[in-house]
Design brief:
17 helices; mainly alpha; 2 strands; 399 residues
Length: 399
């Protein structure tokens, strides 16, 4: 039965492909037709001229692996969103109710993100007459996972539109952008609508049965609590008394963005990406090293603490907030990250270091990792240039 369906589907694409070739009635919609065919089958498009490179992974498989690695934080995000919602509304914390509540909150964000983003992807593909890239399958999922669960749907559409158009298409499309499109969209929303993207009243979404809408209630995150700690030397005890122990932060059962709370789920995703060779372990390990070393140095040299983050255990930097999510899924973007090997270590290290510096010197913006990655995206080409020039300078000149 399955083979019969596959044969009929393949026959459908082969029969109608003539209408989408040059001179056909629907030639302008060829990128959309190719995208649908690519979703169903791997197109048998041979290379027409050398060099002929045989590789076991193409863009479609590459993005499929990234989507697979995103499943642990996504599933946890659905559960955690539902759990925080029911706990805030005082309802029974029954597993099916938690999942249903989480799905009703998270899935609309994902659907709107994909719908608005694919509109721009298809529009630019039709105008420029190039195929629709599978890269947006990852961007369209990454973006809503970085958002508070109470964000309005229209802001999701505006944010992803900015990320796709300004963050990617104005540079020429997939493979030419210098910034991560999902982070570009997240940064735009943060600065355009700060009241909906920061503070304590955006991280827990509850369903308002009277208006059938999603509203937010107060739900302090560990990052926001740490910036308000009165005596700096009691920050860890303050977090622990509020229930934010290291184990809780590592698992991720606390208010936060949809997919960025669980360091454990991000670790599972990191293992999938590293084992399959999709993500660079150099960037991930370099970022963790930069974060831990920088925070440890502040512990040593700071005789007068600047704020709560100066004397805090470095592991809290690693487990709290969205650093794990950012370093695993955002910093390893192969387009906006460096391509040379040594540069990846430096790139990751500086992301970790900048995250600590932003958290310490800018208490009004406690997260830090988003701006650290976007800032280092700017320097990624420079890192590659310097390393290539260093390798070239070591060559023995031809005599």
């Amino acid at each position: 039965m399955l083979n019969l369906f596959e044969k009929n589907l393949r026959r459908f694409f082969e029969k109608n492909s003539i209408h989408f070739t040059e001179g056909g009635r629907f030639y302008k919609l060829r990128p959309l037709f190719e995208a649908l065919e690519t979703i169903c089958f791997t197109p048998a498009i041979p290379a027409r001229r050398p060099p002929f490179v045989r590789d076991g992974i193409d863009l479609k498989r590459f993005m499929s692996i990234v989507l697979l690695a995103l499943m642990p934080p996504l599933f946890w995000g659905i559960y955690n969103t539902g759990y925080q919602s029911l706990a805030a509304s005082g309802k029974d914390l029954i597993f099916p109710n938690i999942i249903i509540s989480g799905l009703l909150t998270v899935m609309p964000l994902i659907i709107v993100s994909y719908a608005a983003g694919f509109f721009w992807e298809i529009l630019f593909a039709v105008i420029r007459k190039h195929p629709i890239s599978e890269g947006f399958l990852v961007t369209g999922l990454l973006f809503p996972m970085t958002l508070p669960p109470s964000v309005p749907l229209w802001q999701v559409a505006v944010g992803i539109s900015f990320g796709v158009v300004i963050g990617k298409e104005v540079f020429g499309g997939t493979g030419r952008n210098i910034f991560n499109p999902a982070l570009t969209a997240r940064a735009f929303l943060f600065f355009a609508y700060p009241a909906r993207m920061s503070g304590d009243r955006v991280w827990v979404a509850v369903s308002d049965t009277a208006s059938s809408a999603i509203s937010a209630v107060s739900g302090a995150t560990p990052l926001s609590m740490s910036t308000l700690a009165p005596p700096f030397n009691t920050i860890e005890s303050m977090l622990q008394s509020a229930g934010f122990t290291l184990s809780t932060l590592f698992v991720g059962n606390y208010p936060g963005s949809v997919g960025g709370t669980s360091a454990l789920c991000c670790l599972i995703g990191a293992l999938i990406l590293i084992i399959t060779g999709v993500a660079s372990y150099r960037i991930i390990i370099g970022g963790v090293a930069g974060l831990l070393i920088s925070s440890f140095l502040f512990n040593i040299v700071s005789t007068v603490p600047l704020n709560a983050w100066t004397d805090i255990n470095p592991l809290y930097h690693l487990a709290a907030g969205g650093f794990a999510f950012g370093i695993v899924y955002m910093a390893t973007d192969p387009v906006s990250a460096p391509g040379t090997q040594t540069s990846k270590w430096v790139y990751g290290f500086f992301i970790g270091m900048l995250t600590v510096l932003i958290r310490i010197f800018n208490p009004a913006y406690p997260e830090g990792v988003m701006m650290a990655i976007l800032f280092m995206n700017l320097f990624a080409p420079l890192f590659d240039f310097i390393e290539i020039r260093m390798h070239v300078s070591k060559r023995i000149p031809n005599v």
